[in-house]
Amino acid sequence: MQELVEMREVMVHFPLQRGETVRAVDGANLTLAPGEAVGLVGESGCGKSTLARALLRLVPLSAGEVWFDGKPLHRLPERELRPLRRQMQIVFQDPMASLNPRLRIGHILTEPLEVHGLARGKQAWQQAGRLLERVGLSPEYLNRYPHEFSGGQRQRICIARAIATQPRLLVADEPTSALDLSIRAQIHALLRDLQRELNMAILFVTHDLHAVRQVCSRVLVMYLGKMVESAPADRLFTAPAHPYTHALLDAVLEPKPSLARRPRNLPAGDVPTALRVPAGCRFHTRCPYAQERCRVEEPELRAAGEGHQVACHYPLSTETEP
Ligand SMILES: Nc1ncnc2c1ncn2[C@@H]1O[C@H](COP(=O)(O)OP(=O)(O)OP(=O)(O)O)[C@@H](O)[C@H]1O
Ligand code: SF4
Ligand SMILES: [Mg+2]
User: Fold this and answer.
1) Mean pLDDT of successive 10-residue segments in the chain (322 residues)?
2) Which residue range is the domain that position 244 belongs to?
3) Among the atoms of ligand 1, which is closest to the Cα of residue 207?
4) SS3 of 128, please?
5) What global pTM score does this model have?
6) Whether residue 208 is found in the same domain as residue 281
7) Which of 47, 60, 197, 316 maximizes the CB count within 10 A of its CB?
8) CA–CA dist 234, 217 (Å, integer)
């Protein structure tokens, strides 16, 4: 089956005035099957949002390729991209900033329908009402303005706008981190339901590993601009193979006595940034298991069991030979 999305060796570098370069995304690979929900996790600043934007061509690529439904987004002119944009939508963290405060909800929701020629006038308005219902809101809200809603309701409106064009891909960049804890699970459940009903792929960017479990079947772990592990969600949570993933999980889950080499807490100081990416394995400055080889040789992503890939010379899982 053809992948819906394939990103190959993507780089997004930002040159700074003083001659330095921020290597925000630095050789990342990613695939999404049609209808698949994939979580993208990693510490703040590791390049998740930049990668998500590069996928939608909202930021220029420095190198690499992005394929969507067999089409090379990385070399399509904007004119040819436009019809594809209907199939790729994004929801951001801050729903208030994403909604024009001067427009009624009805106008916010009919706009994408009209722009893409899907419906007009009364028909578009009716369709907007159905979209509101689909995200758990009353169609009577069409005449109201964004400020009349709570944060969770506003994010539902953003989601309604995103699914208006029946996209095949929804990128959700921290869609619930600005919301109250009690609201988050409801929005995660909504995303999961929509993904299944509309057979829509989701790239779910988040710091919240519990949310990933709720929404996603596969998880990608990113560190300093690159993927270090990819695994089915269940497997990632029970048998992480990369020391970094293990450390991330340690922060939120009960210790796993079955894993003999449980990492100690990672050193807090001297965390490298995208401005200064260490040579060799980019995690070696913080890794409790680093050895000489790790300082000089960068590990490639390699198979570590079914559907599982890890970029480490000495993975914690016993299924790969070091
Ligand atoms: N336009 C830009 N110019 C320069 N540097 C940038 C730009 N956008 C992002 N960066 C840098 O690129 C790196 C990756 O940023 P990005 O926002 O993609 O990280 P993130 O993983 O989404 O972080 P967070 O979890 O905090 O949202 C960071 O070091 C950031 O400062
Ligand atoms: S390659 Fe070495 S430094 Fe990198 S994660 Fe694996 S053990 Fe740690
Ligand atoms: Mg981000």
Assistant:
1) 93 94 97 98 94 97 97 94 94 90 97 95 97 97 97 97 97 94 94 97 93 95 97 94 91 47 51 90 94 97 93 79 44
2) 222-310
3) 25
4) helix
5) 0.93
6) no
7) 47
8) 8
